Amino acid sequence: MFQCAIRGNTQCPVRVSGRRIRARERFAHPAHLIYEAPRIAAKDVQMTEISNETTIQAHDPHGLFARWMAEARASEPNDGNAVALATATPDGAPSVRMVLLKGHEDGTADGGPGGFVFYTNLTSRKAGELLANPQAAMLFHWKSLRRQIRITGRVAQVSDDEADAYFASRSRDSQLGAHASDQSSPLPDRQDFVDRFEQARDRYEGKDVPRPEFWSGFRLTPDAIEFWSDRPHRLHERRVFRAADGGWTSAMFYP
């Protein structure tokens, strides 16, 4: 509710952040309308999926990640698998950009901590930084779902067989685009890029498009995965999983 102090009446009390003040104290507040926050409802503090231990089986962050990703793919209008990827030079200068997650492994096949896979041109800035400083951070943010996931860990290049298999699954024009792009290098003008694409199209007319030697992927092996869920009144929820002894530990954190 809003409570109104009468202008000029220094004896008219109002309530701000749980305490009563006199009108003369109102210089720090806009006009004469003072907002009094409503009480927190019981439904606003109930446990959700990440605060309820019984919904997280055997401290398994990958199962929870897979559920959230499936919901994001179903609800986001574009690229539910888009993720911010942060890298840094060996001396710590950071950079960040959006990429698309193209693979998620839960670790059951090898008993490891799993992995998150993306692909790129090896001449790009991100590839150069990852090869020189093989650690990274990822952030998924789904605004419509009011959720985010943060992941940190070591990074290694995928095998040639993995890169070949994924490249073969791409559309033909995307394959040609990989050949045409000298990623992260200066581009004289847009037409130069278009011309290179057309040259690649002509070069591979009637043939399979091979994966360029300068194009591959990386796998981030997580050492920590954090799930964040928006709640009313900034009573957000955070659960952090950390890889430990071939498994995972988890704990809640203040937002």
Tell me what you see in this structure:
- It is built from five helices and 13 strands.
- The two termini are 27 Å apart.
- A hairpin with a 5-residue loop joins strand 5 (82-88) and strand 6 (94-100).
- Helix 4 (172-180) crosses helix 5.
- It is an alpha+beta fold and 255 residues long.
Share of β-strand residues: 25-35%
Helicity level, as a percent range? 10-25%
Which spans of ≥5 residues are poorly predicted at pLDDT below 50? 1-17, 23-27
Shape: elongated
Please count the helical segments.
5
Structural class of the helices, strands and pairings?
Answer: alpha+beta
Intertermini distance: 27 Å
Overall pLDDT metric: 84
Précis, in short:
With 255 residues, the chain is of the alpha+beta class. Helices cover 22% and strands 33% of the residues.
Annotate the secondary structure layout.
Blueprint: E1 2-4, E2 14-16, E3 19-21, E4 33-35, H1 61-75, E5 82-88, E6 94-100, E7 103-105, E8 115-121, H2 125-132, E9 135-142, E10 147-157, H3 160-169, H4 172-180, H5 190-203, E11 215-229, E12 237-244, E13 247-253
Keywords:
13 strands; 5 helices; disordered N terminus; two-stranded antiparallel ribbon; nine-stranded antiparallel sheet; 255 residues; alpha+beta; single chain; elongated
